Every structure is written in structure tokens, then in C-alpha cells.
Amino acid sequence: MAEECGRSEVGQSEVAKVLARMPPSEEDVWPCLAARRLLETHQYTHLRTGLHIAKRNLRGATTRSPRSGGAQERELRDGYLRDAQDVATAWPQTAALLRDLAEDYEGDAHYHDRKAERFRDP
Predict the structure, then answer these.
(1) What is the CA radius of gyration of the chain?
(2) Cα–Cα distance for residue pair 70/111, rounded to 1 Å
(3) With contact defined as beta carbons under 8 Å apart, do 23 and 15 qualify?
(4) Three-state helix/strand/coil letters over the chain
(5) Which residues of the chain have pLDDT under 70?
(6) How many beta carbons lie within 10 A of that of residue 41, not counting itself?
(7) By CB distance 3.0 to 4.6 Å, which of 9, 24, 54, 59 could disulfide with 20?
(8) Phi then psi for 45, rounded to 5 degrees?
(9) 3: Cβ–Cβ under 8 A, 6 or more apart, which residues?
């Protein structure tokens, strides 16, 4: 229906927001099977971006000790990379999405590391 109205991108973004909240699949890997199936069709060009943004937004605000750096983000990165490796053969588009998320969190970790340097003793 969204495509018929010329709103395909918005429609896919809204569907992505719902799918991002779904529990992981049976093997405890996000996203759920319904999202993976849609990603693998290559039919929904904005779904991957929508899932990426929705998943990042679901994390919400974070707090940390001023000296802790990007440890939280590295933990998330490692989990996404592990999951990407686990699903890469059966779900290549899903693995690509997970690697994209891992790359984002790697960048966030570096950002928080640089911020924490200001609070460390010389």
C-alpha cells in the first residue's frame, strides 16, 4: 500500500521499526526470521537501512564512567560480528547488516576512547 502511494521508503522504515523490536530467532540471533527473509529478497531496498537505524535507536542513551571509554560499544561490536559470522552462509544480507552495526559501534568505541583520554592521569 505504501508503494502505491509513492511512500515505499517510509513504509519500509516503519516495518523495520516493528521488526527491530521482535525477539531474536531460535538461535538467539537478531533480527528475527521474518526480517531476514525480507532482507534476502532484495525487494525492499530501504529495509536494511531502516533496521540498522531502528536497532541503533532502540539502545537509547548510555551512561559510563568518564574514564571507561568504549568498552560497552566494543562488547556490542563483538556480538554483532559473532552473529554475522554465524549467519553469513544462510543469510548473507543479514550478515552484512550485522557487520554494518558492528562497524558503527567500533566507531563509537573509538569516539568514547578519545573522550576518556581527557580524564586519565598523565
Answers:
(1) 17
(2) 7
(3) no
(4) CCCCCCCHHHHHHHHHHHHHHCCCCCCCCCCCHHHHHHHHCCCCCCHHHHHHHHHHHHHCCCCCCCCCCCHHHHHHHHHHHHHHHHHCCCCHHHHHHHHHHHHHHHHHHHHHHHHHHCCCCC
(5) 1-4, 6-9, 121-122
(6) 9
(7) 54
(8) -70, -20
(9) 11
How far the first Cα of the chain sits from its last, in Å, is: 60
Residues 95 and 87 sit within 8 Å (Cβ to Cβ): yes
- 121 contacts 67 by C-beta, under 8 angstroms: no
User: Which grid coordinates belong to 28?
Assistant: 538467539
Distance, CA of 87 to CA of 96 (rounded, Å): 10
Which residue, 88, 8, 84, is CA-closest to 52?
Answer: 84
pLDDT per position as a tens digit, 20-32: 999 988 888 999 9
Question: What's the rounded Cα separation, in Å, for the pair 49 and 44?
Answer: 10
Report the C-alpha gap between 77 and 85 in whole angstroms: 12
User: 110 with 74: CB under 8 angstroms?
Assistant: no
Q: Which amino acid is at 54?
A: A
